[in-house]
Design goal:
Elements: H1 3-16, H2 21-73
Helix pairs in contact: 1-2
Coiled coil: 24-51
Keywords: Coiled coil
């Protein structure tokens, strides 16, 4: 389930609760803050995955270079 969908469901539950409006507002603000933090963490993970993939590709290229270099030296 997407983060925003889960938070929206939680917000709906808060709105339907018997909490007073100030409490509802506080809880919803906390939920939205949590949502932003999770989305930022997901973005950070995506960037890290891209860096790792690039690093793995660079390693593969280096290995191929070393293999070809060894063939030329023989």
């Amino acid at each position: 389930m997407e983060i925003s969908k889960a938070v929206n469901i939680a917000v709906g539950c808060v709105m339907a609760s018997s909490l007073d409006m100030n409490e509802k507002r506080e809880v919803i603000e906390s939920l939205r803050k949590f949502e932003r933090q999770l989305e930022e963490a997901n973005e950070d993970r995506a960037i890290l995955a891209e860096v790792i993939n690039t690093s793995n590709y660079a390693d593969e290229l280096n290995n191929e270079y070393e293999r070809l270099k060894a063939l030329c030296e023989d």
